From TrEMBL:
Secretion signal, residue range per the UniProt entry: none
This protein's name: Glutamate synthase [NADPH] large chain
InterPro entries registered for this protein in UniProt: Aldolase_TIM (IPR013785), ET-N_metabolism_enzyme (IPR050711), GATase_2_dom (IPR017932), Glu_synth_centr_N (IPR006982), Ntn_hydrolases_N (IPR029055)
Record's keyword terms, sorted: 3Fe-4S, Amino-acid biosynthesis, Flavoprotein, FMN, Glutamate biosynthesis, Glutamine amidotransferase, Iron, Iron-sulfur, Metal-binding, Oxidoreductase
CC cofactor: FMN; [3Fe-4S] cluster
EC number: 1.4.1.13
Entry similarity comment: Belongs to the glutamate synthase family.
Recorded metabolic or biological pathway in which this protein acts: Amino-acid biosynthesis
């Protein structure tokens, strides 16, 4: 036997009964009192035979696919999709480089390593809050978890419903609503929203604030949402849907990650967090990182309704072919599930149940007062912006969505420029000017061009 400490000197073959490796999902227990090793099969057999767990699950657990769908329709939006895309900071690049490839092939598009764009806090363009969060990972030489070869021990399914006393092991613990993929479609969300089955009750709470009131309106709205959640819990609600549907010129969306984290921590302080689960109905998330931050700060399911709209439009307009709208949406949800699994594997976590609420991120660019109130217990080593600047960035997006002149109203989405250099897009360290100056400096031994390149 060997470990990081050293190797036990044994004399094979007389002292070796059998040899092998501890396979994924397997365990063994050393009983020091009896002086023997208890095998994987014996450990599991003893545990599963103590109570009729399978009977409890079959009798009391509810699967989302078994919940009846009565063709309930999603809330109707009052403004056109192009305006809403600008409000939520969508770009042409988001649609072409991120959303469409995932809808077609069911996995993330491949990209090169490295990034030469500014940090979110240093960018001149409005940013989603998720972009200020950096994923932490296990800094070890061996891979923390291989989600492909060790797929048997990975799982992204989650269970919704009230959590009960873990020391009271009864069949009531199994009264949960099981979701196989927590990235849910509009139809699945409507199933949950209108569920009328014993032990489950869902309510929708708007995460909007009066735009005219600015920072004060945003702060007051966040506090009001906490009060609404408390009142919903008093009505025996155990599924809270935080929705930013219904945005218009008067009411602006609260960033879904901000609302999710604040509700998660405030209800934890009030000792009521185990009474309910959070579902996010938002237009913001479209990349695996966006979803990872939401799950990391307490969400149990996410419905990216804007992405669903975009994908359905792409199918109708012929940009996505050889499949129907629902298949394309399912492909996107599947791709996000794989992306979340990849993020979890980097830190060595195998199940989304363990990853949910873990906050395994580092913040780069938020001030300490803002972090302490809205994202407590998250590492943030430098200062930066706060709620005031976030509200100003929301206001900048509104200026893009509702421009003053007619020409800007008829223009398409911003080009983006995060994944490659674009004219009038995000700044890049390597751009045509710096490359040309570097070549000029090398070819002509031009000191001025070299200094320009270094300043960039």
């Amino acid at each position: 036997m060997s470990s990081e400490i050293g190797v036990v000197d044994i004399a094979p073959p007389e002292d070796v009964e059998r040899h092998g490796r501890l396979e994924p999902g397997k365990m063994f227990l050393v009983d020091m009192n009896k002086g023997r090793i208890i095998e994987d099969e014996e450990i599991k057999s003893k545990i599963v035979s103590e109570r009729p767990y399978k009977e409890w699950l079959d009798k009391t657990r509810l699967h989302l696919k078994d919940v009846p769908y009565n063709n309930e329709t999603c809330p109707i939006e009052t403004i056109d999709i192009k305006t809403r895309q600008r409000l939520f900071n969508y770009t042409f690049e988001d649609i072409q480089e991120v959303i469409t490839p995932m809808a077609i092939v069911g996995k993330e598009a491949l990209g090169s390593m490295g990034i030469d764009t500014p940090l979110a806090v240093l960018s001149d363009r409005p940013q989603l809050i998720s972009n200020y969060f950096k994923q932490l990972f296990a800094q070890v030489t061996n891979p923390p978890l291989d989600g492909i070869r060790e797929e048997i021990v990975t799982d992204i399914s989650l269970n919704l419903g009230k959590d009960r006393n873990i020391f009271s092991i009864t069949d009531r613990q199994c009264r949960k609503l099981r979701i196989q993929n927590p990235v849910i479609s509009n139809a699945d969300l409507e199933k949950i929203r209108n569920i009328s089955i014993e032990a489950f009750k869902a309510e929708t709470i708007q995460i909007l604030y009066p735009k005219a009131q600015g920072l004060n309106g945003l702060e007051d709205a966040l506090e009001a949402i906490v009060v609404q959640v408390e009142k919903a819990l008093d009505r025996k609600t155990n599924i809270i849907i935080l929705s930013d549907r219904g945005v218009n010129q008067e009411f602006a969306p609260i960033p879904c990650l901000l609302a999710c984290s604040y509700i998660n921590h405030q209800l934890n302080r009030l000792r009521k967090r185990s009474y309910f689960d959070i579902i996010i109905e938002s237009a913001e998330p479209r990349e695996p990182h966006h979803f990872a931050t939401l799950f990391g700060y307490g969400a149990s399911a996410v419905n990216p309704y804007m992405v669903n709209e975009i994908i359905r439009m792409q199918v109708k307009e012929g940009f996505i072919t050889d499949m129907d709208e629902q298949k394309a949406v399912d492909n996107f949800n599947k791709a996000i599930g794989k992306g979340i699994l990849k993020v979890m594997n980097k830190i060595g976590i195998s199940t989304l149940h363990s990853y949910r609420g873990s906050q395994i991120f580092e913040i780069v660019g938020f001030n300490s007062q803002f972090v302490e109130k809205y994202f407590p217990y998250t590492a943030s080593r430098i200062e930066g912006i706060g709620l005031y600047e976030i509200e100003k960035e929301i206001n900048e997006r509104y200026k893009q969505a509702y421009p003053d002149n007619t020409i800007d109203k008829n223009l398409g989405l911003n080009i983006g420029g995060d994944y490659r250099w674009r004219r009038n897009g995000e700044r890049h360290l390597f751009n045509p000017t710096t490359v040309a100056k570097l070549q000029q400096a090398v070819r002509l031994s031009d000191q001025a061009s070299m200094m320009f390149t270094q300043r960039q």
